[in-house]
Amino acid sequence: MGTGTHRNGYRYLLRILPPVVNYTIVKEEIKILIADNDPLFIKGFKLLLKFEDSIEIVGSACDGTEAMILIKDKKPDIAVLDIEMPNKDGLSLLRDLNEDSFSGRVIFLSVHSDSQSFNKAISLKACGYVLKENYESEIVEAILNVSAGKTYYSPQLKGFLRNQN
Question: How far is C-alpha 69 from the chain's CA centre?
């Protein structure tokens, strides 16, 4: 094919390159704040996202009260919250953020895979819900989807959406 442009070169590349699934183009960095009661989990979360050029972690908190203060100060695009946290749980935090007209979006990252926790999060306008057991493989996709105005729910939870009607 050579180094020049060839009419069929683009089609050739399309045939040999693997398809990209759920790819979202990100124009600028997505500012993330993580709140989880486990500092070791937060550390692992930060390491996981360290090489994601489109994502910047602007803060982290180990309890809901600290998270509320940081969210007001840092104004992240997305707050990634655990449900269980001391001082203020994630669901109460989201309720307060809604009352304060938080302009960002919220993704829950939780061990809770029950319909009650999921439906409560959805009723409070959470844009995403990722199970911690899947977070390594799903969290970047969830962040990109939610930042693009979409929602993201771990596949195991999607059945709960059908049961809401």
Answer: 20
